[in-house]
Write a structure and sequence with these properties.
This protein has 4 helices and 13 strands. The chain is of the alpha+beta class. It has 2 domains: 98 residues, Ribosomal protein L6 (Outer Surface Protein A, domain 3, Alpha-Beta Complex); 82 residues, Outer Surface Protein A, domain 3 (Alpha-Beta Complex), CATH 3.90.930.12.
């Protein structure tokens, strides 16, 4: 079995989860998200635990294959080996995405960026982020739906939201405005990111 896929997802207090066919909906203090799973995967909610598993006919086919190999006296494949390859890859992915969704609406996700460089500054203009990055003009970045931007310090940006993928995408877009350069390390970097430095030309 998939080591990740078979693990149940506990629904925290204050978070509601519903399952309608292939669609999982989650609502919590940080927002509301939905996820549509592949038709190869079946979601199930029971006793405040969310589980995902391969479709019943695919499970039966895998068990039949194991029994057939046993009857022939051959090496028995594991359940994961006997399972349809597409269902096997979708199983763990579906569980990870569902777990991220439940965690996101319950506690949220955040990424912190640091601005390094003389004159590099960030400040909020309403819900928009204004960046001074050494260009001839300031950069104005509008927060997408479901994303909150904060600049608690002129050299720090916090991106937060319920959707893990969206938080990571917005943080990457902000970093791309001025990626860290390798000589002096100036630019926008993730908090704790190691920037490999190069030695400048010697005269």
């Amino acid at each position: 079995m998939s080591r990740i896929g078979k693990l149940p997802i506990e629904v925290p207090n204050g978070t509601t989860v519903s399952v309608e066919g292939q669609t999982i909906k989650a609502k919590g203090s940080k927002g509301e998200l939905s996820l549509v799973l592949s038709e190869l995967i079946t979601p199930k909610l029971e006793n405040n635990e969310l589980t995902v598993s391969p479709r019943e006919d695919l499970v039966q086919a895998a068990n039949d294959r194991i029994e057939a190999e046993k009857a022939r006296g051959r090496r028995l494949p594991t359940f994961a080996e006997a399972l349809d390859s597409k269902a096997r890859t979708q199983w763990g992915t579906a569980r990870a995405r569902a777990a991220n969704m439940v965690e996101g609406v319950s506690n949220g996700y955040s990424k912190t960026l640091e601005l390094v460089g003389v004159g590099y500054r960030a400040q909020m203009q309403g819900t928009d982020l204004k960046l001074a990055l050494g260009f001839s003009h300031d950069v104005i970045f509008k927060a997408p739906d479901g994303i909150k931007l904060e600049a608690p310090k002129p050299t720090e940006i916090i991106v937060s939201g319920a959707d893990k993928q969206s938080v990571g995408q917005v943080a990457a877009e902000l970093r791309e405005f001025r990626p860290p350069e390798p000589y002096k390390g100036k630019g926008i970097r993730y908090q704790g990111e190691y920037v490999r430095r190069k030695e400048g030309k010697k005269k």
